[in-house]
Amino acid sequence: MQALKSILDFFTSTPKHVWQELVLDVLVIPGVVIVYRSIWKTYTDTRPLFILFSGIRKSKKEILIYLSQLSAFSPATRSKIPNANFSADYPDPQPTNRNNLSQSFYSNIDPLWSEGDGRCAADILNILGRLGRKEGYRIANTINDWNETFNPKFSIGFNPKTKDLIANCEPIDFNIPQDYGFIKLRGHHSSFTIQGKEDMGIIQKTFLKDANTPIFILAGFGVSGNILNRHAIELGKLFRNKSFCVVFKTDLSKGKDYYVMKAVYPNPTNLRKAIYFVTYFKWRKRNLFPIGDQL
């Protein structure tokens, strides 16, 4: 009660303009600053993301996600094995063998996905969720959806649809020889070589020829989706809704999520460099941007 009386005495006995200024200084101004910072952070965090995927977010067509759909195969006959059986190992400790493994058997479940493709698809779904896209997307069926030309697409790995998109999209800023020994990226004089357990991966945003349909090609041990998800805001800041290509290195011996970004193409425009100079300088220090314009 004494505390309440003191508060009432302050507001009744103190001149009105004094306590109004106090309230303004202590509560209103800091509150406005906090709200402004929150709004600005939300704006800067989401706007580049929305612009990068604007063709995905605003599309009225279904977003299709292509991956390698695999069936059991006989090397002897070079044909699919009908009604193939598959097994899944799981720990089943026994009194005499704590490391014992048992198996569950399955049939008629192909086509299957690789674990890497599945993880990449999950990252793509995460991106769609961040965009607020709650419906209007699905995992494509390679055969049934082959001719769905004008739908925005994500294509995972060098599956048959990825190869078809490479032939029908522009720009394609990378080149991979048939032996998959190295990747050449436009604007970078050196090649990126695959050695041992390492693999090189790419993220290419491109567009269907003679159309504005956005296409994302992602390849590299399933980690490419994670990289796109993690660096989407930075890529949006530097490239807006334009095309770009990222080359990165992975190494299975260092974990499923390990990667090192090796190169990015093209150079951002001078305006993007000026507006987001911190992001640009951070990547420039790592020599990610091109020094020429050859492929």
Spell the H/E element sequence. Answer: HHHEEEEEHEEHEEEEEEHEEHH
Rg over CA atoms, rounded to whole Å, is: 27 Å
Counting structural domains, the number is 2
Distance between the termini: 80 Å
Oligomer: single chain
Main sheet properties: 8 strands, mixed
Strand content: 15-25%
Tell me the number of strands. 15
Helix content: 25-40%
Unreliable stretches covering 5 or more consecutive residues: none
Main structural class: alpha+beta
Specify the overall morphology.
globular
Helices and strands, with pairings:
Blueprint: H1 2-13, H2 16-52, H3 54-57, E1 63-66, E2 73-74, E3 79-80, E4 85-91, E5 101-107, H4 115-130, E6 137-139, E7 153-156, H5 160-168, E8 169-170, E9 174-175, E10 182-185, E11 192-193, E12 198-208, E13 214-219, H6 224-239, E14 244-251, E15 260-265, H7 270-275, H8 277-284
Helix pairs in contact: 2-6, 4-6
